[in-house]
Amino acid sequence: MTITVGIAGITGKFARELASILLKYPDIKIKGYCRDPSKVPEPLSSKVELSKGDAFDTSAVRSFVAGCDVVVCCYLGDGKLMADGQKALVDACAAEGVPRYVASDWTLDYTKLKLGDLFPKDPMIHVKAYLDAQDKVKGVHILVGMFMEVFFNPVFGTWDADSATLKYWGTGNEIWEATTYRNAAEYTAAVCADKNAVGIKKFVGGRATIREIAESFEKVYGVKPKLENHGSLDDLFRHMHSLREKDPQNVFSYMFLFYQYYMTNGQAHLGPECDNDQYPQVKPVNWEDYLRSVPKDQLLSAHSNVGKST
Ligand SMILES: NC(=O)c1ccc[n+]([C@@H]2O[C@H](COP(=O)([O-])OP(=O)(O)OC[C@H]3O[C@@H](n4cnc5c(N)ncnc54)[C@H](OP(=O)(O)O)[C@@H]3O)[C@@H](O)[C@H]2O)c1
Could you tell me if residue 121 is inside a domain? Predict the structure, then answer.
């Protein structure tokens, strides 16, 4: 029987990876929703049923979800979009009898955090509570740690390509749990195809300390990166909060430091138990596998190129 998967935010990076994988499933049909369908490139655009609308256009959202067996939200934006935009999709799913909703998560285990700890994840806490209270729509939350592509994105603050330096806070023995976009999309596609998959699903490509990432880097590229310590995790905590207090509007000056803190302090780690084995056809791509798949001079641009080959 055909399964219809609705992808909200189909112009995005993760959405396009997901759509390209779902197209390989014989019995899956895709509906896509976005603000500007002309941004969906060929051949994807001719293989999915696209509809146009804003996240808060109730009637357009409702007609998009109608007939779907599962809706996957791939939005990424401000708090209003991530909380109220997602609630609008959940309401539409309830009204149209869509039984499953995959929340726009793909992150650390925010269920272990309090509201206000890692502020960009507060909307996800609200959306999970909203889904938990639904009778008709079951929520699905796919947790993958961080995306490896983001770790090497200059804005994140861990990798300086010019000086080949890995920068870190803490002892250097903290674990980074991470997954590639593609690998997370493969797992998400398997979840979409499994009508019984609901609730929290944890999938992690690889776990490694910054020292182990440096060793893999040297093994793969033949270059030993420098390791630069910026202080303890307590120092990081004080630093990120002081930047926020000084200039709260300048979110990008401190947001990635908050991510670095909660990614590595262990509080929101996925493990030790994960659901990797649930779909054995999805092979985890670990840190070293990832580095082998990307030429060194493309590590910086790998994040912005996600979804472009689809
Ligand atoms: N764990 C990690 O390290 C990590 C890192 C990055 C992302 N993520 C997660 O991955 C998921 C997808 O992220 P991504 O990197 O694929 O994001 P992305 O490439 O920036 O795509 C975001 C999508 O949201 C849409 N969007 C933004 N603002 C909107 C609005 N006001 N109304 C309607 N649509 C709007 C965009 O549409 P337009 O094309 O019209 O702008 C686009 O389709 C999110 O859940 C995000 O939290 C996790």
Answer: yes
